[in-house]
Amino acid sequence: MPDLEILDGAASYPYNRRPDYIFGKFSLNDGCVAVITFSTADCMLPILTTYHPDGIEIDSKPLAVGQCSDGPCYKCEEVLQIGKDLTIRVADTMQTFECDEDDLPKGAPITTTIVYKEGKITPSGRIEISKEKEKQL
Predict the structure, then answer these.
(1) Contact 95, 76 (CB under 8 A)
(2) What's the distance, Cα to Cα, between the start and end of the chain in Å?
(3) What pTM was estimated for this model as a whole?
(4) CA nearest 15: which of 53, 42, 61, 43?
(5) How far apart are CA 19 and CA 3, in angstroms?
(6) N or C: which end of the chain has fewer CB within 10 A?
(7) DSSP letter at 63?
(8) Mean pLDDT value across residues 94-118
């Protein structure tokens, strides 16, 4: 990931125009910056927004797949990665297991499914992200 600066209330201006929790920012080019915020829902959803040096928004996209949930004999891991080359990868890996009499996972996973998106931040600050893709392991 590019060098991430963790923001607090004072340092977040002019990037605090939404009612989201501001996490941090990193530089793109020519003074443009990208800001990661978390929007409140059933869980905290990551949103990536890019800005011109004067604080005018260039683009904004949610970076979540949203396939994870809770349940017995079910495991899910959510991962978001932004590379130094500004590539974006976000994935949810879900596994189902056979349950024992106490509804606890037993044995190796029965199924493993990865739902993911890929993309990049362009030199102009636009955020390009694919539709969800799915892979069974």
Answers:
(1) yes
(2) 27
(3) 0.78
(4) 53
(5) 24
(6) C
(7) -
(8) 91
